[in-house]
């Protein structure tokens, strides 16, 4: 499994967004010179993920004030992700990672068919990566279960702390 270190340049990836367009992270970073928050989630079928996406949308203004752009990523079908984006009126990109391109590049933990408990088949577990305007990794949260994700308020506090103390 990939292990990323703080200060390392974040890996690039290319995925399809819910509008059916190619989203290239490296190109996006060049044209959108702000912090990015990659939010990996389990899928549209996950109630905890739906709550998380709702909370991110509710706090979108606070993230924008901090010049942070959320991007949500799941190993789920475009159809399911479109449904989720519409249901929650999400105003940030939602990307499908069916081939595990970003999941593997970021070392996101996977739930597989061989794991000791059944949980909706193979999917990525929750993870969040904060990437600064220079493309460097500033914080990461990796999980092996659906629960215990950082709250939007906790993320906002973390972003403020890192910016204040950034070398």
Automatic annotation (TrEMBL):
UniProt cross-references to PROSITE patterns, sorted A to Z: THIOREDOXIN_2 (PS51352)
The protein's Enzyme Commission number: 1.11.1.24
GO biological process, one term: cellular response to oxidative stress
Keywords recorded for this protein, A-Z: Antioxidant, Disulfide bond, Oxidoreductase, Peroxidase, Redox-active center
GO MF, one example: thioredoxin peroxidase activity
Enzyme class: oxidoreductase
GO cellular component, one term: cytoplasm
Subunit composition and interactions: Monomer.
Protein family: Belongs to the peroxiredoxin family. BCP/PrxQ subfamily.
Protein name: thioredoxin-dependent peroxiredoxin
Originating species: Guptibacillus hwajinpoensis
Higher taxonomy: Bacteria, Bacillati, Bacillota, Bacilli, Bacillales
């Amino acid at each position: 499994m990939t292990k990323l270190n703080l200060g390392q340049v974040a890996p690039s990836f290319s995925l399809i967004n819910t509008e059916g367009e190619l989203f290239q992270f490296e190109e996006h970073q060049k044209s959108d010179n702000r912090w990015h928050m990659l939010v990996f989630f389990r899928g549209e079928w996950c109630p905890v993920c739906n709550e998380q996406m709702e909370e991110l949308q509710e706090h979108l203004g606070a993230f924008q004030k901090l010049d942070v752009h959320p991007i949500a990523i799941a190993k789920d079908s475009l159809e399911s992700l479109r449904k989720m984006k519409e249901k929650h009126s999400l105003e940030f990109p939602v990307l499908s990672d069916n081939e595990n391109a970003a999941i593997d590049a970021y070392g996101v933990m996977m739930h597989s068919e061989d794991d000791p408990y059944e949980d909706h088949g193979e999917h990525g577990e929750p993870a969040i990566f904060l990437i600064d305007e220079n493309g460097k990794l500033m914080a990461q949260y990796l999980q092996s279960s659906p629960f215990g994700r950082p709250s939007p308020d906790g993320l906002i506090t973390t972003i403020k702390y890192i910016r204040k103390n950034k070398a």
